[in-house]
Structures are given as structure tokens and as C-alpha cells.
Amino acid sequence: MTPPSVPCRAESPAGTFVGTVDRGVQVWRGIPYALPTAGERRFRDPVPAPDLSETRDATTFGPVCPQPVTPAIALGDGSVQDEDCLSLNVWTPIDESAPARPVMVWLHGGAYTFGASSQPLYDATSMVSTGEVVVVTINYRLGALGFVDLSSALPGGGFDGNLALKDVLLALRWVQRNISAFGGDPERVTVFGESAGGGLVTTLLATPSAAGLFHRAIAQSSPASSMYGPDRARRVASRFLELLSIDPADPRAADAVRAIAVERVVEAGQTVYAEVPTTAPGTLAFAPVVDGDLLPEAPLTVLREGRGLPVPLMIGTNKDEASLFSFMKSPLIPITGDRLEQMFAAMAAENPGVELPSREQVLTAYEHVRHRAVGLGVARDIGFRLPTLWLAEGHSAVAPVWLYRFDHAAPFLRLIGLGATHASELPYLWGNLVSGPKDLTFRLGGRRVAEEISARMQARWVAFARGDSPDAPDAVSWQPFRCDGPDPRETLVIDRRDRVVADLDHELREAWGDEVLAFR
To answer: What is the pLDDT of residues 460-499, one digit of tens each?
Structure first.
């Protein structure tokens, strides 16, 4: 029998919210931080939700942003899709007499197109049960709804750009104003995210208006180089309107965009999502736009040059990032030889005057790899590892940086060839190792080792959020990344036994060189 839930109450500037006590942790779900974004508010900047005069029930998750359904991302039982999706959730320890705790604000991944803060994977009970941290998970607009910029395609239509990034900024302002009522310390906020969420984290580091909204950052598998300028944004918006059969020259075009059914918006967005990487391997349809205003410059350029917000950063990737994309036959990552050739040609075209490494030079980094796996290695490195390495090098000049690589894979994942693939670190970080009775991850064993890794990861992440070095009890000490010194470029390798390796990416750096490769 399920035990009856016990209510918990928080009185904040935004209003009084009633949540529940779940497994010894207080949880508030579905708190709105912005007004609904449908109708006249579609493709417009988020507007803060008004302060409430009446007590609000916060015991159920809010709607998720409308998105295509994919078996790869479990949104949770009973999840509802709706444009009124800008809400957040708070987990906090039950001991209300303790001093204010550090806050960790999670930005979920999903290629800027899928996912939600309410995914069962991101249940923060395990992480919060240590009693040392408050966790906030947020929704932001996805796909076309969050990343299509219609301001240039339909000038005068009253549309805004970089909507999802503005959603995140507004949610962080909500945290600054309200988190004290939930036991959190607004002066110790760590923003952390994976994949697209990691990309938003590295983007925030290059967003001037984000200064003061967070004090530490963790970027997991960030596609940091996948940001594009106004010209590319205009082409994406034009194709999006074409798929909706909306003529930009029609004086009623803006009204038509606001009135069209959200299902059609999602469908058109999904088509663009699939088309763009097919014609331009290695690029995404949806991502924050380098607009020269909110985001003045490409984040990788800013951070590579040591000009990002000077906050401590933990950053890393997984050993086998690209295997998941190959397994799912995803168009996002170029794997096959012909698509890799397209990618190299595109890099040369988009970086005029830059002496790029030759194909032969690049392949020297993969001489020890099976021929069939070379494409996986190149895709992993250009999409994730190289941008992460360049970013660590640059940002370490202005703030401490800790670099990691997650290498552990359960026996079953190794057997089917996925290894330590993209997002495979998430169950360990959140302490939610099994996603349901049909989860095969530990079919061949490895659960005990996984629990030990999970405990160490949580200890390191929480220690970092607390303001300490990201160390764990009875585990190797992890020192900040430095480009010189007796042990340069130290990287924590997370595996059955954590270890620290100096210059782990030496072969990669030698083969690819130090140039920042850009797509526009």
C-alpha cells in the first residue's frame, strides 16, 4: 500500500505553495515561473508569472512543452503536452532548521527538441537525501517553439528571438527571488545540465545578462560549438514558415503563426529538425542564436578566449558519446564516411583563412580504433570532446575548471556496443539506476559497482555546488585543470575506480590542432 502523502508548505514572494513529503524529501511540483506562451504570447519573450494571493497546490508536475513523442525519452506517466509549460520543481531536505543550502538548477537535455524537467530520471530525491543541497528542475520551450527566430523572417510581426534562453534566465531570476523560502541559498546557485542542457550552461557563461544569477556551472556533454548566427536562423525560420504554408509577404502571416494549431508547429519543427543535419552534417536545426544582443558572440569563442563569466566550472564528456546516435540511426551526428567528408568540406568552407588540419592528420588520432569505429570517434570528438577541451583551456584562465570523462559502462551496455554512451552518466548522477521493471541495464550484473559510482558522483557534484573541491570520500582527489605545470591538463576518469590522468587528450590535441572550428 502506498503511504499517504504528507503536505509541506513554502511561503515565498511568488506565493504560498503546498507540496508533499516524498521518501523523506520535500517536493514542490509544477510551480509556474512565467505566463502561458500560447496565442498572442507565442514566439514572444516570457513574462513573469504574477505573485499569487491564494495558496497554490504544487503536488503535480506541470505540462511539458509540446514535442514529438520518442521512445528514447520517457516523459513520465500522465504527462500532458501544453504551451503553458514554463514551470519548475523544487526538492529540498526535510530539516528546515538547517542553514540555507546550496542550490542546483537542472537544465535537461534532448537536442533542444525533447524532454522535460518532470522526467522520472530527474527525480532528485536521491541527490537531496544527503541533506546538503536543494535541487530545482525547470522546463523551457523546445523545438520551434523555443528556438525558431521569426523576428527577421516576419519583421514587424511582434516576434522575439532566443526564447528558450530567455526562459532559462527568467527561471534563474525566480530562483534568486524565491529559493530562500525553500531552504536554498540564493548566493550559492549552481546551474547544471547535460547535452542541450549542457549547451545552455555554456551559453549562459557567455551571456552578459546572466551575471549574478548563478555562481558555479556544470556542463555535461555540451554541444558548445553548435551555435549559429542570424543568417542561419533566418534560413531555418523561412523553411519553418514554408512547411506551415505561410507566406511571409502575406500581411496576415503573423496572425496565422499565432493561430495555427500547436500540433502543426511541432510537426513542422520536427521536419526542420530532421532536414538540417542531413544537408549540413554536424549541425543542429535548433540552438541558441548568436544574435549580437542577448548573446553577443559565439559562446565557444568567448570562453576559448577567457572572456566568459568568471565562475568555477566542472565540464566533461562520455567516452563513447556517439554510439547512441549510431544505434538510433539519428541524423544529428555524422557517422558514415560520406557524411564525414561533407562535414570536413563544410568546416573548410565556413572557416576561410584558417589552416585546418587535413583529413589524414585528423585520422592519426584514430589509428588504434577499428576501421568501422573511426566515424564514431570523429563524430564524438568534433561534436563534444574537442569543444569541451577548448572551452576548459580558455575558461581556466579566468576561473577554476575541473575536466572529467565518464568511462563506465554496465556489462550489458558494453555487450550491445553502446559503452559509456551519450547520457549514460545520468542514472548514476541522479541515483535513479533502474528506469522500470523492463530496464535491461544490469541484466548481466554490475548493480553494486553502479551504486558505488553513483555515490561518488553525487558527492563530487554536491561538494562542487557547496563551494568545495569536487572530491568524494575514499576516492582520488581531483585537482583543477591547468594547461602547464608538473601535471598539466589533469582529467578525472570516472569508472569502476576513479583515476586522474594528465593530458588525457594528448593524441586528440595533436591530431586536430588548436583551432576553433565553426559552423555559421
So the answer is: 999 999 999 999 999 999 999 999 888 899 999 999 999 9
Residue 422 a catalytic site member: yes
CB 117 within 8 A of CB 73: no
Angle between helices 230-243 and 262-279 (to 10 degrees): 130
For this structure, is 195 an active site residue?
Answer: yes
* Annotation marks residue 435 as catalytic: no
- Rounded CA-CA distance 413/453 in Å is 16
Q: Which residues of 49-68 are buried (b: 16+ CB within 10 A; e: fewer)?
A: beeeeeeeebbebbbbbbbe
Q: How many CB atoms lie within 10 A of CB 17?
A: 24
Most confident option among 92-106, 305-319, 321-335: 305-319
DSSP 3-state assignment of 390?
helix
Would you give the distance in Å from CA 243 to the centre of its chain?
Answer: 28
Residue pLDDT, tens place only, 85-143: 999 999 999 987 789 999 999 999 999 999 999 999 999 999 999 879 999 999 999 99
Alpha-helical runs (H) found in 260-319: 262-279, 299-304
Of 244, 240, 401, the closest CA to residue 311 belongs to: 401
* Rounded-to-10 torsion of CA 373, 379, 381, 387: -170
Contact between residue 276 and residue 292 where contact means Cβ atoms under 8 Å apart: no
Domain ranges of the chain: 6-512
Find the catalytic residue in 195, 222, 323, 454.
Answer: 195
Cβ atoms of 33 and 137 within 8 Å: the answer is no
Cα separation values, 407 from 142, 270, 391, 518, Å: 30, 32, 20, 28
With beta carbons less than 8 A apart as the criterion, state whether 144 and 176 touch. Answer: no
What nine digits make up the cell of 512? 586536430
CATH 3.40.50.1820 fits 6-512, yes or no: yes
Q: Who contacts 129 (Cβ-Cβ below 8 Å, separation ≥6)?
A: 23, 24, 25, 93
- Secondary structure element (H or E) that encloses residue 363, with its range: helix 359-363
SS3 26: strand
Residue type, 244: L
Active-site residue, selected from the candidate residues 83, 194, 321, 425:
321
Active-site residue identified among 422, 424, 454, 490: 422
> How many angstroms separate the CA atoms of 429 and 18, rounded?
28
* SS3 call for 340: helix
